[in-house]
Design goal:
The complex is a heterodimer of chains A (about 240) and B (about 260). With about 240 residues, chain A is an alpha/beta fold. Chain A is built from 9 helices and 10 strands. Chain B has one domain. Classes of the chains: A alpha/beta (about 240), B mainly alpha (about 260). Chains A and B meet through helix 2 and helix 3 of A and helix 1 and helix 6 of B.
Chain lengths: ~240, ~260
């Protein structure tokens, strides 16, 4: 079964069509890059899958459950790291993770175990008692990622998880995602091509709301004479223009 | 269908408790609640003794004390509620909150109840006034208790307005100004100067209708020791309507 199935999602903002009948799927064990230039419709698509935006048409099935008709159940099966990794800066890391664990229905004992597990996975045990506002950007991003997996969801959606991180922090974040990849269906929005080649088993390329390519990074790269993913990206997408 | 409903209700309860505890911590682990309560108590004491001339009335009742509740709520309660949703919008955490597996109304209710708890704490700390009048004379304690209950409900009304407008405005200062303005309309509609003016211009029907929507009309009846079922229905209904608007405005912020 496909853990995540996106079925003909469309969304307009006024006269501008942001996403046009986008369909793809992600199976358990797959790490799929959702690739495209800025303004391509990546975040809009992810927000519709996560239930933050209402699509004009189409649906998304998370673990076989519709986000439209059974939103709560679908969201329980989903870990979502929104763009910019939003956090409550006034809380300690432990309290933030505890808040997310409780909202996902974990009791005190289960929450305690889950917090210890994700703190270990995300390598944030040493800052678990610190207020989030005192942490570096790399730590904050890892705390946000830990928050998205505290309920151990089978489907994980990460919107630009390494954006703004330094090379060392990027390596650490990629290693963490790779450790989770075997048992989850992971969709990563990015416009960093090195990340796609390093981490992803497949890539879905979107531009101006349309899917332009869906295949392994090698298959997409092979569409150009040079065989480089970067050249395929340039060939299949156009620079962003003001709407 | 039943399983879906049961899951939604269970998750609503989980989210409501988590949001309530998170907001309560935000109030009491920072100076916010303490500053609010301290200034509220100082202001209420000053108004009661200086303007209400508590000792000059020579009566063992709390009329000069309750007189100023609506006016202080009007200004102070928006100050504690204005951050509730505006902060989420400013900090980008609205997306985090609204993608939690819980219905929006449970998040709205959790935040509102946390703010109402702060108001309840402030009200509870005024009870030494009640003890004082019992020491000075023999007040009608049933009427005072009733007025406290209605005052608490009235505080909920002002808070519900401020919570909703915090979601609508998305900015703390704008939310505060709008909440005071809207609160003033729902307060002044019951003032004699407004009702008599409306009555003279548009007839008594409209004046009475306007007064019935005022937050102070039912509060004044309670001070006379009269428990009206319609007062309870009014305040609970008033809070419910504004919280429903709150949920609608929060959902609208999703941009969907």
């Amino acid at each position: 079964m496909q853990a995540l199935k996106v079925d003909a999602l469309s969304k307009s903002f006024g006269p501008r069509q942001a996403v046009r009948s986008v369909s793809f799927s992600v199976a358990t064990g797959e790490t799929v890059a959702f690739l495209g230039p800025n303004g391509a419709g990546k975040s809009t698509t992810l927000r519709m899958i996560a239930g933050f935006l209402e699509p004009d048409s189409g649906d998304a099935l998370i673990n076989g459950v519709s986000i439209l008709s059974d939103r709560t159940k679908a969201q329980l099966a989903l870990g979502y790291l929104a763009e910019g990794a939003p956090l409550y800066f006034d809380l300690s890391v432990r309290d933030f993770l505890g808040f997310l664990a409780r909202t996902h229905g974990l009791n005190s004992a289960a929450a305690k175990t889950a917090i210890a597990r994700v703190a270990e996975d995300a390598a944030i045990t040493d800052v678990i008692s610190r207020r989030i506002e005192t942490l570096s950007k790399g730590y904050r991003r890892r705390v946000a990622l830990a928050g998205s997996i505290v309920h151990d969801p089978p489907v994980l959606i990460l919107d630009e998880p390494t954006d703004g991180l330094d090379p060392n922090q990027k390596i650490a974040m990629r290693a963490l995602i790779a450790r989770m990849a075997k048992h989850k269906a992971i969709l990563i929005s990015t416009h960093q091509l090195d990340e796609v080649e390093a981490m992803c088993t497949r890539a879905v390329l979107i531009d101006r709301g349309d899917i332009k390519a869906d295949g392994t990074p090698a298959e997409i790269a092979a569409r150009t004479p040079s065989g480089k993913l970067e050249d395929a990206f340039h060939a299949l997408t156009r620079p962003e223009k003001a709407a | 269908m039943n399983a879906t409903f049961a899951l939604n209700m269970r998750q609503a309860g989980n989210a409501l408790r988590a949001v309530y505890m998170r907001e309560l911590a935000a109030y009491f682990l920072t100076p916010l609640a303490y500053v609010f309560i301290a200034i509220f108590l100082i202001a209420l004491g000053s108004f009661t003794f200086q303007i209400g001339r508590f000792f000059d009335t020579n009566q063992a009742d709390l009329a000069p004390f309750f007189l100023f509740h609506p006016w202080l709520y009007l200004v102070f309660l928006p100050a504690i509620a204005m951050r509730l949703w505006a902060d989420e919008a400013r900090g980008g955490t609205l997306e985090l909150l609204l993608t939690l597996p819980a219905p929006t109304w449970s998040l709205v209710l959790g935040k509102f109840l946390a703010a109402w708890t702060v108001a309840a704490a402030a009200l509870l700390l005024t009870t030494p006034m009640w003890m004082s009048v019992n020491w000075l004379g023999a007040p009608d304690n049933a009427a005072i208790f009733l007025t406290y209950v209605i005052s608490f409900l009235m505080a909920g009304g002002y808070l519900a307005i401020a919570c909703a407008l915090s979601a609508a405005a998305g900015n703390q200062v704008v939310a505060f100004v709008l909440s005071v303005a809207v609160g003033f309309i729902f307060t002044s509609a019951g003032l004699p100067v407004v009702t008599s003016g409306l009555s003279a211009t548009f007839g008594p029907g409209l004046a009475e209708a306007m007064a019935s929507f005022s937050l102070i009309t039912h509060f004044e009846a309670a001070q006379r020791g009269v428990l009206e079922m319609r007062a309870l229905v009014f305040y609970i209904g008033f809070i419910a309507v504004w919280l429903a608007l709150n949920a609608i405005w929060v959902s609208a912020r999703k941009g969907g």
